[in-house]
Amino acid sequence: MDSLKRFKNDVNDLNALITKLEEATLKEIEIFSKLMLLFSESLPLQYEVSFYVSKDPEYGLLFEDALVFSFVKLVGRSIGPESKVLFLTRDRDFDVEKVLEELNEVGVEVYFSSGECLQRIKELLA
Q1: Are the beta carbons of 108 and 85 closer than 8 angstroms?
Q2: Has residue 36 got a pLDDT over 60?
Q3: pLDDT digits (tens, 9 = 90+) for 73-124
Q4: Which residue among 9, 10, 76, 95 is the one 20 to 30 A from 57 at the CA level?
């Protein structure tokens, strides 16, 4: 019975995702399509990745936070070692070992304090 309930929840979540994608305006898609040239993966794929991340208790992220996580990770992976990606957030939902570990693997530094982030920027510019 629990499996059936989880399956129904997954179907509802997928339907919500499909609805969001269908509601995307042509202008937004046009803007994102220009950005896609920078990334190694398509942006629509990030919605799917985010859905599965939001279902994994190891991440502990809601779908909206999973979207941010997925996108920041994609930026880190796409920019590569020639630049630094600093992710400043006050949302402690991202202060999860698995999230921080995966962002670190793609070169993203996470900061929860603007002071620490600014200090890091000063270090990088020195």
Answers
A1: yes
A2: no
A3: 988 887 777 778 899 999 899 999 999 999 999 999 999 999 999 999 989 8
A4: 76
Domain count for the chain: 1
Q: What six digits make up the tokens of 119?
A: 């200090």
Q: Three-state secondary structure along 91-116?
A: CHHHCCHHHHHHHHHCCEEEECCHHH
Kindly state the greatest CA–CA separation across the chain.
60
By residue range, what is the domain housing residue 101? 2-125
How distant is the alpha carbon of residue 73 from its chain centre?
A: 6
Among 77, 23, 83, which residue's Cα sits nearest to residue 47?
Answer: 23
Place of tokens 């070169």: 107
